[in-house]
Amino acid sequence: MTTSCSDDPIKDWLNKNCSADLDLSSMLMSFELKKLSTPLIRNRALVFRDNVSNTGELLQLPFFIASAPLMESAMNRMEQHLDGLKSVPLCLPELSDLYSRVERFPSEGLKSFEGLQLSEGTAKLISSGLSALGEVFELTGEKGTDKMKQAIEPALRIYDNSIPVIEHLFRATLCSFWTALEVLASDLWEDAVNSEPLKLASSALREKTDHEVEGITQKQVSVDALFKHNFDLSNVMGTVLKSKFDFSSVHGIEKAFRCIIRFDAWTDDEKRILILLEKSRHLIQHRAGIVDAKFLELTGTAANLGEPLVVSAPDLQNYRQAVTRAGWKLILQMENWFQENKASN
Fold first, then answer.
1. Could you tell me the residue ranges of all domains in the chain?
2. For residue range 74-114, what is the model confidence (pLDDT) as tens digits?
3. Could you tell me the CA-to-CA distances from 9 to 2, 13, 170 in Å, in that order?
4. pLDDT per residue over 175-185, tens digit each?
5. Distances in whole angstroms, Cα of residue 24 to Cα of each of 10, 58, 121, 167, 287
6. Which of 69, 132, 208, 216 has minimal CB crowding within 10 Å?
7. From CA 75, how far away is CA 70, in angstroms rounded?
8. Crossing angle for the helix pair 39-85 and 162-195, nearest 10 degrees?
């Protein structure tokens, strides 16, 4: 467990997991899908994007629940003022300018309307509406973070087990981030080799691993293996050979892709955080998240031996960013290979 910075562990937890600079939004990753012209690559990229985005929503859940009453109150106030604006006679240019100013200056009130010719009553009505609108916008900033802490704190104090429950959710989110990368790597490799067996399967066949495919070697194929695939391996070599490789580890993913293409996309820093994610996922699923000596040796972290692995919201944000970058680089390198080989044909 983490060491408290004060005499109040609940406030310490809130300060660590509810910060103004923590991105808790569900924005989709900035994939430049237009760069992907190979259908099988694009399809895997879309699935990966959705898996990471959907997993990110798990991270938001407790904070959305806490902020829901605040958001509802602010939205109700804003809607009341917008209903009042229906009676205000504004011409089209004024409306256009109004919406532009609201978007740029949601909480500055009358100062947003310098130069806009409005009656005093209309200006006050709009200013009051903007004040309500500002409350909604502020829920995503520093003031909103403070309000969120105030909203969630009573629940944490009433229910003694609330923080452990949220931390279980955080651990599940961590595992899902790793799974998104593992599934992408495994499926992308399989699809690529299935699609181009003559160019990609031979090196995979030659590669010596701890998980050889029964009945299939570089020199021969058993009748049983042929029978299993209707005596036609031409479109399933990736499916057949995938079991030779370990896609559940960073090293295994690198080995599998280096076997078929010149894969060198991940930096040492990127691999370091991916390995920490990989080992944390393994610890959670195989050791119930209890830190053991092997985990400390492999990761070099400052976690406490024999205690539950602590996973915070900032940790998960870092993992999400690392998985997104790693997965996108994997996608781009395979896309580049297909484009280069398409051009050479």
1. 9-61+160-344, 74-151
2. 666 656 655 555 555 554 455 455 545 554 544 444 444 55
3. 9, 6, 18
4. 999 999 999 99
5. 20, 10, 39, 16, 29
6. 208
7. 9
8. 140
